[in-house]
């Protein structure tokens, strides 16, 4: 690998110069955990959402924010892992390694979660936590380097504080050092800031071209045209639509832009403040699609007004009509 962190200065021209027509986009989609009328998990519906994601050609990601990972118990997270392993039948999936609710040696805590995920056939993505946020940049790199020895492949997470208070966006210098870890195959970037993501793409291209920058920017899902892949909560609303959008880009089809714009409209609605309430919009939208029996959320989760349903219904109708008009 090459090294040499350099200062970045992005202009509109340099951003446009990054556009990569016809590239294959790798999609990973967080999967919503649905609930029954009695507030129990609707595991049948959850399994169906997993299968629909795989069938769309997108890799599902479980025990993420979209799956209420921070509100589940350890036993509940393991139950989700077991269900996912059974449904996967060898297909790939990503799973969040969450340690915020635990105490002890941080490296050991993460290694335990990595082991639970990898032995079920998943790829771990390391959720940040309060203890990690308190570390210096050097300590963060050292920890990730040690954790990289525990698995042949894992993903990192940069999470803005608008999502969780223990989120942290690393300096570009720290990010470059993380790229030196061979088993770290990619990182989800959720700053909701295009410039910071463009900086990471520029660095990736110079230092380690095989590294995946997964956009977590639900307010700028077109980051895929500049070289990002994605790991999104928004794609949980309609993975089939995202898969169609991705194929349109690969085939240099002009319809990409209209479909992306409509999906972005959905993103701006769902990911407005308070951002964590997007999960309720996801449940409302999936119920409109006939995939959930209720639009209930986790009892401790933020909720949206029922008035959102009429807007979501309009988006759903327009989205289905647009998709029906596109042929391959």
Structural features, described:
There is one protein chain. The chain is α/β, with parallel strands linked by helices and 328 residues long. The protein has twelve helices and eight strands. Strands 4-3-2-1-8-7-6-5 form an eight-stranded parallel β-sheet. Helix 2 (43-55) crosses helix 3 (74-88). Mean pLDDT is 94; it is low at 1-5.
Question: What is the topological layout?
Answer:
Blueprint: H1 12-16, E1 27-30, H2 43-55, E2 59-62, H3 74-88, E3 94-97, H4 106-118, E4 123-126, H5 130-133, H6 137-147, E5 154-159, H7 172-178, E6 184-190, H8 194-207, E7 212-215, E8 229-232, H9 239-250, H10 255-270, H11 278-288, H12 308-325
Parallel strand pairs: 1-2, 1-8, 2-3, 3-4, 5-6, 6-7, 7-8
Helix pairs in contact: 2-3, 9-10, 10-12, 11-12
What features would you highlight for this structure?
alpha/beta, 8 strands, 328 residues, single chain, disordered N terminus, 8-stranded parallel β-sheet
Quick synopsis:
This protein has 328 residues and is of the alpha/beta class. 42% of the residues lie in helices and 11% in strands. The chain has helices at residues 12-16, 43-55, 74-88, 106-118, 130-133, 137-147, 172-178, 194-207, 239-250, 255-270, 278-288, 308-325, and strands at residues 27-30, 59-62, 94-97, 123-126, 154-159, 184-190, 212-215, 229-232.
């Amino acid at each position: 690998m090459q090294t040499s962190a350099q200062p970045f200065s992005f202009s509109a021209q340099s951003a446009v110069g990054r556009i990569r027509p016809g590239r294959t986009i790798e999609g990973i989609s967080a999967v919503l955990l649905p609930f029954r009328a009695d507030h129990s998990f609707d595991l049948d519906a959850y399994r169906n959402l997993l299968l629909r994601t795989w069938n769309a050609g997108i890799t599902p990601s479980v025990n993420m924010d979209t799956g209420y990972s921070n509100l589940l118990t350890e036993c509940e997270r393991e139950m989700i892992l077991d269900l996912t392993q059974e449904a996967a039948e060898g297909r790939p999936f990503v799973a969040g390694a969450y340690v915020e609710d635990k105490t002890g040696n941080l490296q050991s805590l993460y290694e335990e979660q990595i082991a639970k995920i990898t032995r079920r056939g998943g790829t771990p993505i390391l959720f940040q936590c309060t203890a990690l946020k308190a570390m210096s940049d050097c300590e963060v790199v050292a920890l990730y380097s040690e954790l990289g020895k525990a698995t042949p492949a894992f993903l990192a997470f940069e999470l803005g504080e608008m999502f969780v208070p223990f989120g942290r966006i690393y300096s570009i210098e720290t990010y470059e050092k993380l790229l030196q870890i061979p088993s770290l195959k990619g990182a989800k970037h959720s700053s909701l800031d295009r410039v910071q993501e463009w900086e990471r793409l520029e660095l990736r291209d110079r230092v380690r071209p095989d590294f995946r920058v997964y956009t977590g920017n639900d307010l700028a899902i077109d980051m895929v045209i500049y070289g990002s892949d994605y790991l999104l909560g928004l794609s949980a609303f309609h993975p089939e639509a995202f898969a169609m959008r991705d194929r349109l880009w690969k085939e240099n089809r002009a319809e990409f832009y209209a479909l992306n714009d409509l999906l972005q409209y959905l993103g701006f609605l769902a990911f407005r403040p308070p951002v964590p309430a997007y999960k309720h919009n996801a449940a409302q939208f999936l119920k409109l699609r006939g995939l959930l029996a209720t639009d209930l959320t986790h009892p401790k989760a933020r909720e949206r007004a029922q008035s959102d349903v009429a807007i979501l219904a309009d988006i759903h109708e327009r989205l289905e009509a647009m998709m029906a008009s596109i042929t391959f």
